[in-house]
Design goal:
The chain is an alpha+beta fold. α5 links the parallel β3 and β4. The N terminus is likely disordered. α4 runs antiparallel to α5. The chain is built from eleven helices and twelve strands. The strands form two sheets. It has an eight-stranded mixed beta sheet. It has one domain: Glutamine Phosphoribosylpyrophosphate, subunit 1, domain 1 (4-Layer Sandwich). The longest helix has 23 residues. The chain is globular and about 50 Å long. The protein binds aspartic acid (ASP). The site of aspartic acid has 15 residues, from β8 and α9.
Length: about 350
Amino acid sequence: MKKFTLACFAYTVLLLIGCNTPESQNTAASTNKISSPTYEPGSFGIVIHGGAGTILKKNMSDSLETAYREKLTEAISRGHEILAAGGSSMDAVTATINIMEDSPLFNAGKGAVFTHDQTNELDASVMDGASLNAGAISGVTRIKNPIDLARAVMDKSEHVMLSGVGAEQFAEEQGFALVDPSYFYTKRRFESLQRIKERETTELDHDDKTAFVDPFIKESKFGTVGCVALDKSGNLAAGTSTGGMTNKRYNRIGDAPIIGAGTYANNASCAVSSTGWGEYFIRAMVAHDIAVLMEYKGMSIQEAAQEVIQKKVPALGGDGGIVAIDRGGNIAMEFNTAGMYRAHMNKEGSLTVKIYK
Ligand code: ASP
């Protein structure tokens, strides 16, 4: 019996020694933790986007650029305040997105684009990196702040995703005040739809590339808003809210409310929010792919984001971008379009706001 115990002990020692060879370290790294971002207690950070697309300096007036910069700053500062005061990353994400949803500058909430039938159909989702709980809604027409309803689906229902009339019924039961659909009307988005219709094309008709020649049309295509945050407790959260694509038909749903495509958060890797050509982002499972490249392959957040946004998405023919943050407070703001409205604030409160490449 003693001999057996000794043999077991020797075997265990050999196994342990074996684990220290470089080769086995690589295996460990590729299966998980070794290069997973180090969590620094008390650290926090927040990153936002207001859509990616053909956003070129030459097409932008100074006053419009200032308006974007100011709104991005206002939104991210709100989230940062919440995090600095010890609030949760989920609270920071939704409060930040609310500010962008209430602004006509972005394709979400008040500034949502029009469908072919001249209505506005909104999609949104949130995910909590600690519990992997998530909530999403699609095709709602009377919810002022879709991100709040997505959160209510996560917190107050046993479901992950609700759509259309049913989602609005759930909203009413939860005490949401429904707005008249005319709330979402903006002249800019309405004219954008008319211009596209005049061209007798749809932005979903990918055989007709003329839809992508006009920068204004392209710009109005990707204006989704998103936010990712790390709170002082080390928890990650992500959220995304959109009006989808101008001239969409047939109750088309994009990537924004799809967990894993438009939104993903996992404390083991990172939190991601996407913006771009939704069909491709769904097919590439963009947000989840970035997270698992970190978790399974040990990539850094920057490497993982580049792999998906600069290689996988364009290889399929799509374009767009993401923002992401990990538990170490490392961030990525990656896009393969001309520009992406984006901003970052770290623990120290230093602010970066950018629009172009
Ligand atoms: N990703 C969104 C969609 O396809 C569009 C956007 O990012 O603006 O619905």
